[in-house]
């Protein structure tokens, strides 16, 4: 409450002694219900710090008399979830991935589980929508470096690419042609590669001169028509899909220095069921192919 200075003596209530522009503030006592609530909160707070982890120490917080731990509670919840899903996880691992779609319940579980695994472990590189980025493949199209069947996708996920952790990792290595070819030859073959997918040449003379170099140096992996080879992890060059960029400067850089992307071996980090689930999920995103294809 507040009163003007000339009205403050109308009640026998003391003021705080402070004055703002002639206005003084009464020093009324706090409501008892408020004080009791305040004191109760203090008692509750002291009890909480005794019962639960609260005070920071050098290495960890005090554990509390109840021994409660949010990490422990999470671990228990995870164990409960794993126990509840143990049977269907075992089923997912035991059946061939090509047969998962024959069981609607198993298919739905694999896709849902795989989506969660993908968002947690794969989206950082391939994007939340799996559209990829420069240096990280788009998983929504039909271009697959190592094959797009569900089994091929599973092997790629499980063992990774060019990592040092898994001896069965997919492995290919493009030579750095800057150490093999002259700068003129690299420019010529880059201009030829630029046109191999049907684009008009930027320099017809350079593109024509680069064809012979391509057939001699590059066709062994990328094939004569530039269609690539999934057994070698050699990308197709005739489909207008570029992992690192398809402008002439980027192609010259790729030919000169090569590329050496690395993918972790997720089979060493995830369970067999999680690998099977994320392989099923990725295969169903729209770019996977069947065994017959």
UniProtKB/TrEMBL annotation:
Region Disordered: start-end pairs: 1-21
Keyword Repeat carried by entry: yes
Single GO molecular function: heme binding
Subcellular location: Cell inner membrane
Binding site for heme c 2: 174, 218, 221-222
GO CC term (a single one): plasma membrane
Main location: membrane
Binding sites annotated in the UniProt record for heme c 1: 122, 125-126, 263
Keyword Transmembrane: yes
Entries under Pfam families matching the protein: Cytochrome_CBB3 (PF13442), FixP_N (PF14715)
Membrane spanning stretches: 33-55
Pathway involvement of the protein, from the record: Energy metabolism; oxidative phosphorylation
Residue stretches of biased makeup (Basic and acidic residues): 1-12
Key words of the record: Cell inner membrane, Cell membrane, Electron transport, Heme, Hydrogen ion transport, Ion transport, Iron, Membrane, Metal-binding, Oxidoreductase, Repeat, Respiratory chain, Transmembrane, Transmembrane helix, Transport
BP-aspect Gene Ontology terms: oxidative phosphorylation; proton transmembrane transport
Domain Cytochrome c: 109-197, 205-286
InterPro entries, sorted: CcoP_N, CcoP_N_sf, Cyt_c-like_dom, Cyt_c-like_dom_sf, Cyt_C_IC, Cyt_c_oxidase_cbb3_su3, Cytochrome_c_Oxidase_Subunit
Cofactor note: Binds 2 heme C groups per subunit.
Cofactor(s) for this UniProt protein: heme c
NCBIfam families on file: ccoP (TIGR00782)
Chain's role: C-type cytochrome. Part of the cbb3-type cytochrome c oxidase complex.
Family: Belongs to the CcoP / FixP family.
Subunit text: Component of the cbb3-type cytochrome c oxidase.
Name by which UniProt lists this protein: Cbb3-type cytochrome c oxidase subunit
Species: Meridianimarinicoccus aquatilis
